[in-house]
Specification:
- With 182 residues, the chain is an alpha/beta fold.
- It has one domain.
- 25% of the residues lie in helices and 20% in strands.
- The protein has an eight-stranded parallel beta sheet with strand order 5-4-3-2-1-6-7-8, with helices on both faces.
- Strand 6, helix 4 and strand 7 form a beta-alpha-beta unit.
- The radius of gyration is 15 Å and the shape is globular.
- The chain starts with a strand and ends with a strand.
């Protein structure tokens, strides 16, 4: 098995994605043009946006049971695999990283996960699902990254940034930063 996986989030730094052929996971409805093998959806509002935008996936969707049930109820086409467990304040990127680590990937590249190194929580999904009163989730999101790093201590997580050379906090020795110039 190839031991490298790439996860593409929806932060603005996903603009520098440059991926050789590896297993690639996208989050929600991707706004990038990078081919991917699977996507993660944990919010039923994404299903509504898929219907509004006439989005369908030929790739499998890793999701929670709630999302899978809702997809059936709303008649959203696709293969929805309910392998993710809902956890408060955990985003699709967290779920994707954990699932890849569980599957045995030892090198996981994180693209577009800007809240790891910036205060900005904006997402390219904000255009599809407006969130005018979004809570500041950076503390919880960063806490989840720290837990993931500890739980999968032998997995290396590579955080790709644009012109940023430091992470916002110490996530553990298995988090590495790769800064790209734009």
């Amino acid at each position: 098995m190839n031991q490298t996986a790439h996860i593409i989030g929806n932060g603005i730094s996903n603009a520098v994605v440059d991926i050789p052929v590896h297993f690639t996971v996208s989050c929600n409805i991707p706004t990038h043009n990078v081919p991917f093998d699977v996507t993660t959806i944990i919010d039923v509002r994404v299903l509504e946006a898929m219907q509004e935008q006439s989005v369908t996936f030929t790739q499998p969707v890793w999701c929670t049971q709630v999302v899978a049930d809702s997809a059936v109820k709303k008649k959203v086409s696709g293969t929805f695999l309910p392998i993710l467990e809902s956890q408060h304040r955990k985003n699709s990127g967290h779920h994707a990283a954990e699932q890849c680590a569980r599957m045995g990937y030892t090198h996981i590249h994180l693209w577009g996960m800007d809240s790891i190194f910036r205060e900005d929580l904006s997402s390219q999904m904000d255009n599809l699902i407006p969130r005018p009163h979004r809570a500041n989730m950076t503390v919880e999101w960063r806490g989840h990254w720290s837990k993931i790093g500890k739980q999968y201590a032998t997995t290396r997580f590579y955080v790709h940034t644009i012109n940023v050379n430091t992470l916002h906090k110490d996530y553990g020795e298995n988090f590495w930063i790769i800064s790209h110039e734009k």
